[in-house]
UniProtKB/TrEMBL annotation:
This is Glycosyl transferase. GO terms for molecular function: transferase activity. It holds the Pfam family Glyco_trans_1_4. Keywords: Transferase. It comes from the Bacteria. It comes from Candidatus Lambdaproteobacteria bacterium RIFOXYD2_FULL_56_26.
Length: 381
């Protein structure tokens, strides 16, 4: 099968990278074009071809940064150009999010693609603060829904949106975030006796609850001196969210003392190797109307759980309900005191911590990327 995958990427791995790995490992002929979002450290797009389980060639193109709007326009042109330049017909084209799917639909009109899958990994009513840009985004989104052959949706909330938009049930597929378990090596359970190592994974931004972590950690340290915090990720280069600039978080973390360890950005394989060393995962999304995570299935939460880390989470993303249902962590209010109490409780009740750890691992057995993609592809062809 010939597959074309078109997507934007972030500094951290997610569903796009998992899809690339899946199609490479299953031996399909895969052409990819990946564009970094404007805030990424590396501004170059990546293009390449894999055949029979190995990369034939890969390279980076156009590394020069541009303003955000110009970047999206450039990305669409590059996608169309390379879609033509690859010079082959595809059985399946995966267009991740509206702009890439929009180009995929044009490639289908040109006779280069048989089936187009619209893969939505994030969606929200107010995607952009600029109202005109937001209307244009949703016009493209509705166009893709109306003309795709199948829609893969990251969360049940997005499935409901597609249903309301009139998408046929047989095309409206739930494809949640999974994990590559073969890349995870769990430690001996006997070494996990007390929850004292906390980890915060991902880009450092206000919507991710970083301010809450900083405020609560000092209070936890006073009661539990042995507690440590590990931060995997960094403040994005533009340090802007919802149109508002914010100061880098690293100086504030350093001010908390030597028990805070800033590990910087890691690739996903390194993340999956490192996470099992810790005890509790932090996913403290800030509750407000414009938080994209309310519609998402955050990869970091699935990574925490798959590595045996009970997760402390706010009720913002839908997966918080599953964490409560399966007793795989603690859902807390967005308050420093609530976070401090949850950490201290699990640190002082090792039996409860170990039970939640076992539950986290059992829950994630249903979320292997290979199984999720195999089912989705079979339903889409």
């Amino acid at each position: 099968m010939n597959v074309l995958l078109l997507s934007h990427t972030t500094d951290l791995a997610g569903p796009t990278e998992a899809a690339v790995s899946y199609f490479v490992e299953t031996g399909e002929t895969l052409d990819v074009l990946l564009h970094p979002l404007p805030y990424c450290v590396d501004h170059a797009s990546q293009v390449g071809r894999a055949e029979q389980g190995a990369w034939v060639w890969r390279k980076k193109v156009w590394p020069k940064p541009l303003p955000p709007l110009a970047t999206y326009f450039r990305d669409a042109i590059l996608t169309l150009f390379w879609g033509l330049k690859f010079g082959r017909r595809y059985d399946l084209c995966l267009g991740v999010d509206p702009l890439n799917c929009f180009v995929a639909l044009w490639l289908r009109r040109l006779g280069l693609v048989d089936k187009v899958v619209f893969y939505t990994i994030d969606w929200m009513p107010n995607r952009f603060t600029n109202p005109w840009l937001n209307r244009f985004y949703h016009w493209i989104d509705r166009h893709c829904v109306a003309h795709c052959d199948a829609a893969w949706n990251l969360s049940p909330k997005i499935v409901e949106v597609r249903r309301a938009q009139g998408l046929a049930e047989e095309k409206n597929l739930l494809v949640p975030v999974g994990v590559e378990f073969e890349k995870i090596k769990l430690p001996d359970p006997s070494t996990k006796t007390k929850a004292t190592k906390l980890v915060l994974l991902g880009a450092l931004a206000p919507s991710k609850g970083v301010d809450l972590v900083i405020e609560a950690f000092a209070a936890v340290q006073k009661v539990l001196p042995e507690v440590e915090l590990y931060v995997i990720g960094k403040t994005p280069a533009d340090a802007t969210e919802d149109g508002v600039r914010y100061e880098p978080y690293e100086p504030r973390f350093r001010a908390l003392g030597p028990k805070v360890h800033l590990l910087g950005v890691m690739n996903h394989d390194q993340v999956l190797t490192k996470l099992p060393e810790f005890d509790l995962g932090l996913a403290l999304y800030k509750p407000y109307e414009g938080n994209l995570s309310a519609w998402a299935d955050p990869s970091r939460v699935k990574d925490y759980l798959a590595c045996g880390l009970p997760t402390l989470i706010t009720a913002v993303p839908p997966i918080a309900q599953d964490i409560t249902l399966h007793n795989a962590g603690v859902v807390i209010e967005y308050e420093p005191q609530a976070l401090a109490q949850a950490v201290l409780h699990l640190a002082n009740h090792p039996e409860e911590f170990l039970e939640k750890r076992r539950n986290a691992l059992a829950y994630m057995e249903n979320y292997r990327w290979s199984d999720l993609f195999l089912k989705a592809v079979s339903q889409s062809l």
